[in-house]
Write the C-alpha cells for this entry.
Amino acid sequence: MFAASLAFFFVTATTFTSLGYVLYTMVAELGWSKAAAGLSFSLLGLACGIASPLPPVMMKTVGTRVTMFLGCLVLAAGFLIASMISDLTYFFIATSLMGIGFTLAAPSPAVYLLATWFPRTSARMIGFYFMIGSSGGIAGPLIVGTIVGLTGDWRLHWMVMAICAALVGLVCLICVRDAVKVESVEQVKGPGDKRDGAAAQPRNWTVREALFNPTFVTLAVIMTVVQLVVTSTHSILVAHIATLGDGAAPGAIAMSLLAFAGTGAKGVTGAVCERYDPRRILIAGLILQAAAMAVLWSSPHVLVACGAAALFGTGWGMTWLSAHVLILRYFGAAIAGDMTAMATTATTLAVLGPVGAGTIADLTGSYAPAMLVFSILLVGAIAVAVLFLRAPQQRPQGDEAQGGTDGVGDLVPAE
C-alpha cells in the first residue's frame, strides 16, 4: 500500500501538477508560444490515454509489481530527455514518455490491487490511495519552485526527478505484492458497498459487456470533461494568475491549494461513498468545479483566484474519486483495473484542452475566455449526470452462469 501510494504521489508531483510551473519558466527562456507549450502538456495527456490499455496486458504477463517498476523507468527516461532538450520536438518526446510512465505506474494497477487486497473496504482504501497520491500535487509546484528558484536552472529539476523516478521504481520492485488470488465469487462481490445492504450488487460483468453499457459510456463522458478541464487548469493556472499582476509565485501557491483541496476531498470521499450515494457526490463535485471556473473567468483578484483554485480542487477530488467508486460498484472488483484503464483511455480527448486554451490566450491575450468555456462544459456534464447516470441494468439470468471476465481481473471461475 505504501509503495503503490508513493508511486502515485511521485507521478502526480512530477507531471501534471508541476509541469505547468516548469513550462512557465521554459517558455520564457526558450521563446515558445503558449499554444506550443499547451501542445506539450496535451501530449502528456494523450500518451496517458493511448497507453491506458497497456497496464492490464502487462499485469497479466509480467505482474503488477514489474509493470509499476517499468513505468517508473519510462518516466525516468522522459525526465532525462527533458533535462537535455533545446528543441521543442524532443520535449514532445519527453512529455509523451512521461505520460506512458504515469499510466504504467498509477492509478490503474493500484486500483486493481486495492480491490483485491481489501475486498470489503476497497472504496475507503481507494480513497486513501487517491488522497496520498494527490498530495503529490501539493508538493510538486513547491519542489519545482524551490529548485528553479534557488538555482535558476529548470534542467536541474528534470535531472533530479529522473534520479528520483529510478529510486521509486526500485521501491515498487521490492515492496509491491501482486494481487492475492481470489478464492470465491463472494470475496469480490460488492466491495465498497453500503453496509445497509441497499447498494446494488455487481455481477460477473465481462469487460466487453461493461464497455458498451450506457452507464459506463455516461461515466466516461463525464470523466472526459472533468479530465479536460483539470488538465487544462494545471497547464494554464500559473500563467493565468501571473497575468493578474503578481508574477508566478501566487500561481504556484494556487496550484498547491488546488492539490491540497483535491487531496482532502479524495480522502474524505472514499469513506463518505460507503454511506451515501456516490452519484450525488459526483454531481455535487461537478457543480463546485463549474462554479470555480466561473469565478476564475470573472475575477481579476489574485486572492479570489486562489480561493477558486481551492474550490475547484475540492470538486475535482469529489468527482474523480466518486467516479472510480461507481465503476467499482457498478461493474465489480474483478474487472476494476480494466474498466479504470478503459475510462482513462476515453479521457484521451482531454488533450485538446491545453492546446485550445493556449490558442485562445494567443488570440485574446488572456486565459479568462477559456475558463468560461470550461465552466459551460462542466454545466453540460452536470446535465448528463442528472439525466443519464443510472445503475446498469441486470443481465438476463442465463448469462450469469457463464462467469469469468475477459480482462485483468480474470479471477472468477466459471460456475
